[in-house]
């Protein structure tokens, strides 16, 4: 076979092998990685549950049913930032009188994904006559839970008992403001 024929045969062979998809065998190992990072959320919200002295119900509208409250106790949750958790809570007690009691639980629940702790708290009380609540209201509280670590889906609970005593004056009023700040549990001052 002369050189031209040999070259032509080789070229045809390579072309045929190319068309057939032939390749020299080689071993391989394929590695891959994808990454995703997100940060947790710090989120806490109020919840509230209470009972009012059963004797508070009378038949005030004359319909034959003892189902009308004399003192009105109401509450409203506020989700001002629209994240689905209640960071605000408004409570009203109207038309209270001696012997009325309200018994319940005020909860702060961790609705976020990382543990939280109470950072700062403040309470302010104003009323008229000034200081009437010191004699006019009996308050018992019991804190359940650790304010330094509230785990996700866990709560800090305040069991309370409020009793309007015989010393509660007529036409008195009281406003209470409570502010709480929570931070992630490992925050340092
Ligand atoms: Ca009624
Ligand atoms: Ca909210």
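^ structure tokens above, recovered residues below v
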């Amino acid at each position: 076979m002369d050189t031209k024929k040999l070259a032509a045969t080789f070229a045809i062979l390579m072309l045929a092998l190319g068309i057939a998809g032939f390749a020299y065998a080689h071993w391989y190992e394929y590695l891959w990685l994808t990454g995703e990072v997100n940060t947790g959320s710090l989120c806490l919200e109020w919840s509230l549950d209470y009972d009012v002295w059963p004797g508070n119900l009378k038949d005030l509208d004359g319909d034959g049913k003892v189902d009308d409250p004399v003192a009105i106790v109401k509450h409203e949750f506020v989700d001002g930032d629209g994240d689905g958790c209640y960071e605000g809570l408004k409570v009203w007690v109207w038309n209270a009188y001696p012997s009325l009691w309200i018994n319940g639980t005020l909860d702060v629940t961790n609705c976020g994904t990382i543990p939280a702790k109470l950072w700062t708290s403040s309470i302010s009380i104003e009323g008229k006559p000034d200081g009437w609540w010191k004699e006019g209201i009996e308050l018992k509280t019991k804190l359940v839970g650790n304010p330094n670590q509230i785990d996700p889906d866990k709560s800090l609970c305040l069991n309370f008992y409020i009793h309007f005593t015989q010393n509660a004056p007529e036409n008195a009023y009281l406003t209470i403001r409570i502010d709480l700040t929570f931070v992630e549990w490992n925050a340092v001052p």
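Residues 79, 81, 83, 85, 87 surround calcium ion (ligand 2) (CB under 6 Å).
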